[in-house]
Amino acid sequence: xxxxxxxxxxxxxxxxxxxxxxxxxxxxxxxxxxxxxxxxxxxxxxxxxxxxxxxxxxxxxxxxxxxxxxxxxxxxxxxxxxxxxxxxxxxxxxxxxxxxxxxxxxxxxxxxxxxxxxxxxxxxxxxxxxxxxxxxxxxxxxxxxxxxxxxxxxxxxxxxxxxxxxxxxxxxxxxxxxxxxxxxxxxxxxxxxxxxxxxxxxxxxxxxxxxxxxxxxxxxxxxxxxxxxxxxxxxxxxxxxxxxxxxxxxxxxxxxxxxxxxxxxxxxxxxxxxxxxxxxxxxxxxxxxxxxxxxxxxxxxxxxxxxxxxxxxxxxxxxxxxxxxxxxxxxxxxxxxxxxxxxxxxxxxxxxxxxxxxxxxxxxxxxxxxxxxxxxxxxxxxxxxxxxxxxxxxxxxxxxxxxxxxxxxxxxxxxxxxxxxxxxxxxxxxxxxxxxxxxxxxxxxxxxxxxxxxxxxxxxxxxxxxxxxxxxxxx
Amino acid sequence: xxxxxxxxxxxxxxxxxxxxxxxxxxxxxxxxxxxxxxxxxxxxxxxxxxxxxxxxxxxxxxxxxxxxxxxxxxxxxxxxxxxxxxxxxxxxxxxxxxxxxxxxxxxxxxxxxxxxxxxxxxxxxxxxxxxxxxxxxxxxxxxxxxxxxxxxxxxxxxxxxxxxxxxxxxxxxxxxxxxxxxxxxxxxxxxxxxxxxxxxxxxxxxxxxxxxxxxxxxxxxxxxxxxxxxxxxxxxxxxxxxxxxxxxxxxxxxxxxxxxxxxxxxxxxxxxxxxxxxxxxxxxxxxxxxxxxxxxxxxxxxxxxxxxxxxxxxxxxxxxxxxxxxxxxxxxxxxxxxxxxxxxxxxxxxxxxxxxxxxxxxxxxxxxxxxxxxxxxxxxxxxxxxxxxxxxxxxxxxxxxxxxxxxxxxxxxxxxxxxxxxxxxxxxxxxxxxxxxxxxxxxxxxxxxxxxxxxxxxxxxxxxxxxxxxxxxxx
Lengths: 475, 475
Fold this sequence. Notes:
The structure is a homodimer of 475-residue chains.
Chain A: E1 28-35, E2 40-42, H1 43-50, E3 65-67, H2 75-89, E4 97-103, H3 114-123, E5 134-136, H4 141-154, E6 162-171, E7 183-192, E8 197-199, E9 205-208, E10 214-215, E11 223-224, H5 226-252, H6 258-261, E12 264-267, H7 272-290, H8 316-333, H9 339-344, H10 350-363, E13 371-378, E14 382-390, H11 400-406, H12 409-414, H13 421-434, E15 455-460, E16 466-470
Helix pairs in contact in A: 2-3, 5-7, 7-8, 10-11
Active site (chains A, B): 105 (proton donor/acceptor), 139 (acyl-thioester intermediate), 268 (proton donor/acceptor)
Binding site for CoA (chains A, B): 229, 273, 277
Protein name (chains A, B): Hydroxymethylglutaryl-CoA synthase
């Protein structure tokens, strides 16, 4: 063969036919599935156990309960469960998926992605031709994955198949004031064109910078600067509101007004009280911009064109008054998507996206023609503000009314049986022992306590290989 | 304001104007910059020091030297250096960048991305509106990031700005047979339309599955199953060649032939000997498919339509004969892109992409009209086979001849001053001590030994915050 090789290179790529130019429309969320561990503890119980004043966690943090994993579940098993639920429930064959990626900050390996574990369920169906890997950047990784998936569908790489994005995380804090903000859960999203919740392309605003508000440099527990975290979350939201509003105004020819232009707002939720404050702050921006200030806030002299006080210089009583004033609007625009986060705790990457299935469950076809404003935040810092628009897709399979009818979130939240604070502490001790460990069989919870169809960690062998199994689905 | 709120939701999203439909063309690599630490050790010296037969590393692995970091550099500092070099050398303002993402498996934090550290140089220029996060999936993360960036440029998210992709990794193995395959380095790529090395859209083939060939579950060092790794690398390449060839045939109307259809081939390079074997194996597939078998290989009865022996069933003497036979073609198509990997060791995500700058440096404008076949592999498993096409861009700034003239890779490789094997061992011991540590000042190498313009780790404080500094660039 060497004898037949050309003396000069082949100029091999001279005449490559162009690809068709058609670009997909209305790309966004076709369906969403949330998974949370069955094991949970109520914040009411935690308050008693921790000897803190009643209301400190339930009112002060705005939380009702937190989900925890024991050592039987991890970010991989939760991702497997959420992904399988999405495919099975919506009748998606693994062959129909051309992109799969994961947002996480709870990976069990520094090299091997959670995505490769999810490939097990696609491989057994004969499909390994699936792009995408793990996206890692604190709580923002899932949003990065969603934007990547949407870009793929609109790019020349797209081959007509669906994208699946899975977010899966465990948040766990050392004993102390942050521990009640622990949580766990996973979300799987089906992404494609003709979506009932389409991304508003061209309105997405992003802010990224370097900060040490929350990071995880040294083991199981994160390093957290609480006040800096809150400041970064709110300050970044201010920046993004300005960027989003500028894009909105340029495209729509009028100023953005939260009250009239966003029917729903979803927030990354470290704990619900911060979501309440964030939403009130968005309304505060509206007031300073549009000048419609209610009587109750008259003493702060907000007027048309006044500058919102930056988060650092916000008087506590003004913030409190704003939250109180915003309550009715919050009730309408935000509350319908906050149950999972309030009852399961911080799910990191899955946090904001857990609100989507819940919004579909509570609101259904009424979302058609409505705008959902999203504020996704990841410490470190990375954040985006963007919007989804509800619409009636051509494919009835993904109609909002149908998705609503199929959703079982409230039912699944309600049927969990709470564990005691002592059980939670035992699970945390186990997590400490198991961190980066090999050669063990998981102990908690008992397999009987898992929901049917749940994936779980069956064993970690002496070579640190993790073997997963699935509890049979209900008949 | 509550009084003026509408009783029913706003149906806010009724009339959103459509975005323009124009899609970018010839998206690909506009420029590439490689960075490797100045501190390196020669494999010849390592052979003597380790008391192994002469040639074991140099011929057996095909390696010449390995770069190592000490504790003064890490994956973040190398990413900073590579990114800064790319921007400065090609006169790209940080304001011109709209997407920045990182491929890595050597992150210093489980939550905060390397991308957020890179934001420092964009923030100081006033640009924080930059999408993209870290892509994590073994050595494939960089390729995933490149594909994401290309999709972004072709999507409706694109705003006309450049994308930058940075790959940065340290490979380090415990004392024993794998240690000589250690290495370190980073690559920064500028991605956009009208590229001198454009991705051939529609020809990319991907394979992902679950395997434990190489992973990193328990600390500094990976867990490696050597024979399984080699098998997975070669077996995945077989699968991808078939997929790539099928797409090629469908689009081009003729069978793919490595000899005539690929002028260059780049491979992920754990060590050079595997690259030699992999390329010989691709030629072997050509033979079995096209039947042009040279005399020297006659005894193995390869004929038109015969099936290549799978990697597991490959006789050692046939593999050796294939490598020998392929030598002349390897010399022409592969060698011109392998110097960095052979002299710096495994750079994980940066490995295959380090070949791009080198190919530009050795080949320049002769790449126009030529096809470069790429085989990117990450353990776990994820891999893609795809191709780039050399072309003359409309913007002379990124013409291949100009990129070639500006490249200084061979010069920088040559002016490194080798360290002793003892120095390397001392650096490894330091890496063991520093793993997940806080509260220290880096010791090695001395700042004087860094190249001008290199970023380095100045301090890790008691709260694990990493402070980076930059050695002044040469005047």
